[in-house]
Amino acid sequence: MKTTTLIIGCGDIGMTLGQQLIAAGQRVIGVRRGAVAALKDSGIEPLALDISDPAALTGLPNADTVVYVLSADRFEEEAYRAAYPDGLRAVLGELAGRKAPPKRVFFVSSTSVYAQQDGEAVDETSPTEPHGFSGILMRQAEQALLDHPLPGTVVRFSGIYGPGRDRLIRQVSEGRIAPSAPPMYSNRIHRDDCAGALAHLIQRTLDQAPVEDLYLASDCEPAPLHEVMLWLAGKLKVESTETIQSPLRRRASKRCDNSRLRASGYVFRYPSYREGYAQVLREGGFLPEQA
Question: Is residue 259 part of a domain?
Answer without folding.
Answer: yes
